[in-house]
Amino acid sequence: MVRGPGGDDREPRSLGELHRSVAVPRLPTFWRRLFAFAGPAYLVSVGYMDPGNWATDIAAGARLGYGLLWILLLSSMTALLLQTLSARLGIASGMDLAQACRAMFPGRLAIVLWLLAEVAIVACDLAEVLGTAIGLQLLFGLPLLFGVALTTLDTFVLLFLQSRGIRLMEAFVVVLIVTVGVCLGIEVFLARPDLDQVILGFVPSLAGDQALYLAIGILGATVMPHNLYLHSALVQSRVIAQTPAGIRSGVRFNSIDSVVALSGAFFVNAALLVMAAATFFKAGATDVVEIQEAHRLLEPLLGSRIAPLAFAVALIAAGQSSTITGTLAGQIVMEGFVRVRLRPLARRLVTRGLAIVPAALTILVFGEQATGDLLVLSQVVLSLQLSFAVIPLVHLVSDRRFMGQYRVSRLIASASWLAAAAIAGLNSSLVYQALSGWLEGPAKGAVWPWLTVVPLTVGLAGLLIYVTVVPAWQRRRKKVVPSYLGVHGKADMPAVHPAEPPRLIATAVDFTGADPAVLSHAVMLARAAGSRILLLHVVESGAARLLGAELADSEAHADQARLELYAAELQELGVQTTYDLGFGDPVEALARHMLEHKPQLLVLGAHGHQVMGDLVYGTTVDKLRHRIRTPILVVPAAPAEPG
Question: CA torsion, points 526, 529, 530, 531, in degrees to nearest 10?
């Protein structure tokens, strides 16, 4: 913990060894900046294609064919929205989600939220342990228990990558993601799905007895709570200027990164579901729900030895990539919620140990066939914790005290609350179904569940109500946030949006010594922006005021001839030029020209006829400024050369 100059506690850096470790080029080159920002979302995306998702995708495809593709798409869009909010929180506030929750809630409640987050991370790691062990068994024939023990070795791979910096870690994960994508692409190619049925799968429907249950399972398995903590910390690994332009740029490029990475995760999950539909559902094998069974049936159904091999390799790659992000998320929540920092080795061993123990016990007591049920249980645990991450996140990004001028708009906030409500409702339904089935089945008639599990579930429901209601009440009361939040929650800085280059520059001339300076500035701007110039002159004689455009005297003809000469000169200088002649009062005439031609800039000289001089320096300048919305550039005449 660090003390600030005024005695206030300063929030420690999130992932201190990786914080602001990747430089971002300041050159305005889109692709170079995008490449510098790319990475965090890819680390996050692996959580959306971990072994825990495989069981739900395979079961949905085997039982209902392509019918739940639309649920998968909807879940992925929800995940994209939440991950974008998480990245915005980290960039704008300088805190990860765990740190921000500790700032928003009382200390004891922060500890409870930390424990829930740890349980979710262990549950996620459990799915990764089982997935990797199953993959090793399918590929090399290793006993499942031996494969579970072997997964401890990936701890050292992670430590090596973390010691070499975030970019190497990101590159390693991208290689694993590509491996998963290629392998599943082979599966889909061999399965030869019906493209018409694939398209129909995106039409919303819930046909079938188990459609609702499977839809809830897909949603619960797709949106991962630990990813929200992780993303808000990983985006801080980039050196982002703490200015409105820098923060907007960071949010923009990280949003693009999220769209690309999570779209890849969607296609991986869709490939699993499509493969299961085109292979198992088509063959009538609708009872395939376990990964081992799916692997066993691939070769006889597809008639290719490559299919089960690619399946096993993809499963191992998915498990290994998810392992890396789960460990980082554990480090983030421990440091953020309770400010306890362990060495990476100790943190990794604790998380992996807590995951291996239930996996090993399940295999020893119930046998290898029970691993499928354990995978499903891990997803139920994740569903329990999900709302405790999503709801605080939506509160934070909507709160000006934490986000300042970077809080989300009302439209995005409304969409986020709708997503949070859907997640809470569907996951609560899933938990209720699981709990009811358990109480009516294995635990029927027993007293101890009503003394343990049921009170725990009720307590979690009460906690969910608290984290939903209390932050809104505190915001309404304008409760002061901790002093270590920095400047973003206290003072706003005007956001600067670079204007679009003018396509047409109107230039008023009066045929005096002010014209050279006016035309020189207009040509300079036109060349720089590739603009056209519109020359304007107002005939302001008494006759012009009376007759207007009907005037055809010698002054009007002479002024038009001069405009033609000016236009020809500017054409020679390489600027496309047109002209127009006005009559009468200069303010009225110029206002009409602005309305008719709609230029993006008006250039005026500082000297000329008396009326034009008044236009710039006198009271009529305000009349013109209030009459038009076009920006005005006032150019002073060049000083006369000494004679």
Answer: -50
In angstroms, rounded to a whole number, what is the distance separating the alpha carbons of residues 607 and 637? Answer: 6
Rounded to an integer, the average pLDDT of 330-354 is 78
Q: Please, what is the Cα angle at 393 between 213 and 340, to 5 degrees?
A: 105
What residue has token string 């909010």? 85
When pLDDT is averaged across residues 466-473 and rounded to a whole number, the result is: 91
For residues 4 and 10, the answer to whether their CB atoms sit within 8 Å is yes
Weakest mean pLDDT among 23-37, 228-242, 289-303: 289-303
Give the number of residues written for the chain. Answer: 643
CA-nearest of 220, 240, 254 to 42 is 254
Q: Which residue has the tokens 């109480």?
A: 439
Q: Which fold has domain 504-635?
A: Rossmann fold (3.40.50)
pLDDT at 615 over 60: no
Report the C-alpha gap between 203 and 184 in whole angstroms.
24
Listed by start position, the domains of the chain span 2-22+40-371, 504-635
CB 196 within 8 A of CB 65: no
Spatial neighbors of 383 by CB under 8 A, at least 6 apart, are 220, 427, 430, 431
C-beta of residue 424 within 8 angstroms of C-beta of residue 219: no
The CA distance from 46 to 327, in Å, is 13
Alpha-carbon distance 84 to 232, whole Å? 9
Which DSSP string do the residues of 515-579 spell out, in sequence order?
A: HHHHHHHHHHHHHHHT-EEEEEEEE-SHHHHHHGGG--SHHHHHHHHHHHHHHHHHHHTT--EEE
Pairing state of beta strands 532-539 and 504-508? parallel
Per the rule left: phi > 0, alpha: psi between -120 and 50, beta: everything else, 583 is beta
Contact assessment for residue 404 and residue 490, using Cβ atoms and an 8 Å cutoff: yes
Please indicate whether the domains covering 2-22+40-371 and 504-635 agree at the CATH topology level: no
Beta-carbon count within 10 A of 220 CB: 25
Residue that the structure tokens 């055809």 belong to: 552
Q: List the beta strands (DSSP E) in 287-419.
A: none
Closest CA to 118 of 324, 336, 322, 319: 336
What pLDDT digit, counting tens, does each position of 163-193 carry? Answer: 777 788 888 888 888 888 888 888 888 888 9
Does the 2-22+40-371 domain belong in CATH 1.10.4160.10? yes
Residues with Cβ < 8 Å from 339, sequence gap 6 or more?
1, 12
Pairing of strands 504-508, 9-10: unpaired
Instruction: Encode 151-183: b = buried (16+ Cβ within 10 Å), e = exposed.
Output: beebbeebeebbeeebeebbebbbebbebbbeb
Residue 538 has phi, psi (to 5 degrees) of: -110, 120
Q: How many CB atoms lie within 10 A of CB 580?
A: 16
Residue with tokens 């070769």: 299
Sort 360 into a burial class: Cβ within 10 Å, 0-12 / 13-18 / 19+. Answer: middle
At residue 388 the predicted structure's pLDDT band, cuts being 50, 70 and 90, is: very high
